[in-house]
Amino acid sequence: GGGGGGGGGGSTTSAFDRPFKILQRDGAAIAHERRRSRAAAAEAAAAEAATENSDPGDVDGDFDGGGPADYDYFREEVARRLVDRLDDINREGGFPLALDVGSGAGYVHRAICSDDAFEGEGGIGGVRKLVQLDSSRAALHRDEDVEVEGGERCGTFRLVSDEEDKLPFPDGTFDLVMSSAAMHWVNNLPGLFREVHRVLKPDGCFLFAIPGGQTLPELRSSLVLAELERDGGVSSHVGPFVDVSDAGMLLTDAGFALPTVDVDTVRYGYPDASVLMEHLRNMGEGNAGTNRRDRVGVDTFLAACCLYDRQWGLDDGGGEESAVEASVQVIYAIGWTPHESQQRPKERGSASRKVGEVVEEPPKGKS
After folding, report:
1. Whose C-alpha in 5, 144, 293, 363 is 20 to 30 A from the C-alpha of 157?
2. Of 124, 66, 126, 120, nearest to 96 (Cα)?
3. H helices of the chain, where?
4. Which of 51, 45, 5 is nearest to 291 (CA)?
5. How far apart are the C-alpha atoms of 97 and 176, rounded to whole Å?
6. Are 6 and 250 in contact (CB under 8 A)?
7. 3-state class (DSSP) for residue 83
8. What's the pLDDT score for residue 188?
9. Which of 178, 111, 181 has its CA nearest to residue 139?
């Protein structure tokens, strides 16, 4: 099953096996490169066959002209929605220097480069230079040889570093720090948030998206019921994730001002539950909990798939490509490093007028 999660307070117990998660993500990136290479080779063979007036159907392989299988759809969508929120911030001069924590293959960079800044130079948000940081070397460098449309708008630099370590930058380096669907495998989120606060300039912005507690409830319940029926007990397969209330608390505890949190739910259709789990694996989102089972028995796996298909099948059938649904809760949040220019509540007891002096009673007979 797939998974994700968030770190809690100051506990020394790790919820996630970080080395194993990096291996999963490295494996997913390497598999993506292999699929891309096979698709390119098949496309070249088909073009050569067409040039020689041969029958392209004679070419070996299953290339259908559509390129390799796409498992980036979720991260690309979340990155676009996150950058849309960046575009809503009206700030003179924008955010020239930015950091993307857990950048993966560059989803945020591509979204930023997709359009010009509202005013001035750079991509969306006025970002002119983006440092991409990730603990998975293979994921970070997966697409470095792929041309980014609009890449001239925003330059980039890739850096391999563990998100749970001290960020390798001096205090007050960045105007903006972003993270898109990448922090749910971090054990020590409070420590990471404090590090983000440290590397931001005064009046710097921290904008992130993270899967929330109501992510993949369909898969979680199906696996629980299947294990109860087949094995007589349950184990962790999905999560734990950060709750909505945790996001604002994490920002406040790390010293951020003006925290704002909103929630979105995205839904995807799949032919069946086994395809969903295949996608999670190819995304590098397999279970990496420290208390995970070594393997799930075939009987339990098949039972979970049957339960999922029966309980979460789409009413209209959804067609062959979308027979069952999976939902992901995404928490978007923003916080600012304190600055004297920001709005602040007045001190308690500083009011010069009473509430009754500014609130008029409605005329009699009216409410």
Report:
1. 5
2. 126
3. 18-51, 73-87, 107-113, 137-140, 189-199, 217-230, 244-253, 273-282, 298-311, 355-358
4. 5
5. 7
6. no
7. helix
8. 92
9. 181
